[in-house]
Amino acid sequence: MVIAIAIVRTRDLLAVVMLTGIYGLLSASFFVVLDAVDVAFTEASVGAGISGLLMLTAITMTGRKEQSGRHKPFLALFVVLVTGGMLIYGTLDMPYFGAVDAPVHMHVAPRYIHDSMQEVGVPNIVTAVLGSYRAFDTLGEVAVIFTAGIGVLSLLALPRRSKQAKSDEATVEQMHERHMVLRIVSKALIPFILLFALYVQFHGDFGPGGGFQAGVIFAAAIILYTMLFGLDTAKRVFNQGLIRLLAAIGLLLYACVGVVSMLNGANFLDYDVLAEDPVAGQHLGILLIELGVGITVTSVMLIIFFSFAGRRQAQQKTAEHNGTEQQGEQDVSRTL
Amino acid sequence: MFLGLYNYWIVVLLMMIGFYIVIAHGNLIKKLVGLTIFQTSVFIFYITVGMVERGSAPILAEGISDYSNPLPHVLILTAIVVGIATTALGLALAVRIKEAYGCVEEDEIQKQDLLNEDNS
């Protein structure tokens, strides 16, 4: 919370982004304290990793300084205080924190906790609910992520250019020479990060993890590679068209699992009919849809990152071309 | 007596900080950061609601009978990833606005809009 207040006060957006990263990590540890290990996992990889990175990339393009106070804070403060007061008044009727007999724990939760082992056969209840009981929700969410990826792509996509300008190449090479140790160590680490992502993906049934987290971690490894070896190298290694195709394939895989179970005479996304034994069918279904989720999340994160980075590079090139870029801003973006 | 509610109050405070940033600051990127804080406070709220005293993480194991409510965890888990995707969309919009207007400050954008209307 202290950090949140610091975010309000700070005008240097770079510092704000750093603080946001810390805030993400802190809320992740808070989730662990509250027994939500799956959520903490996601928040740690998203809040402390990817989101900070995206914001950094964005502020290199939009400028670092916030304009100093011409806004009128008193009206805003008043509105905020009134709303906050009303919300706190509302909490007075809430059940106490951690109460066992709170209304939330009465409705469907007992069924999930007691019956999911017989019905789905997956020890991690979160995965069971995510993949099986509420699979339709999850399908919708994957669709939202996919749509956001398309949106970013359409906003930031660049017109195709036939020739690459070579002016940047030399300076980029030089920067990489300087970070030799970093590059070699990270290169050794990347396979393990990818392996860990696969572990998270396929072990999600038994421990914390699953498609969402694995997708983000997988994307993080590739983004790390991009940061160390430059965007052009990464674009040569990872085919952009393939990534876009994969984003769609993941979502399609998910939906197709649903359609296949319909063809087998059950409801949409009812996996019982996918195999002889209902529990085995559930296992297969969850495995497949988590795979779909993982593929889509990875590729959408990569699409978003590559669009931002590509846009930034293009802006830099035109700025260098005009010869008007300020030295300070360039330094910030180079350290990225 | 009210101590049992302290967690909700932390959530409300965080929420109000995020809300304040969104309505009081002009910089679009800063607004997005505020929105992220607001979002996280809602996440914390859900997880708080799902918490059971002396409960354990909802992964079935021998010898544990009390588990936290898994449903909020599922909702928030997906919401985090959806949140980052939508934040990225917002950032992309901010980048395009910067390209079109040359700044990401709300009042300047409005000023430029007014000028354009007057001219046309």
TrEMBL record, chain B:
Pfam families: Oxidored_q2 (PF00420)
Chief location bin: membrane
Family note: Belongs to the CPA3 antiporters (TC 2.A.63) subunit C family.
Compartments where located: Cell membrane
Source organism per UniProt: Shewanella maritima
The protein, known as: Na+/H+ antiporter subunit C
GO CC annotations on file: plasma membrane
Transmembrane segments: 6-25, 32-52, 72-95
Keyword annotations from UniProtKB, A to Z: Cell membrane, Membrane, Transmembrane, Transmembrane helix
Bilayer disposition of the protein: Multi-pass membrane protein
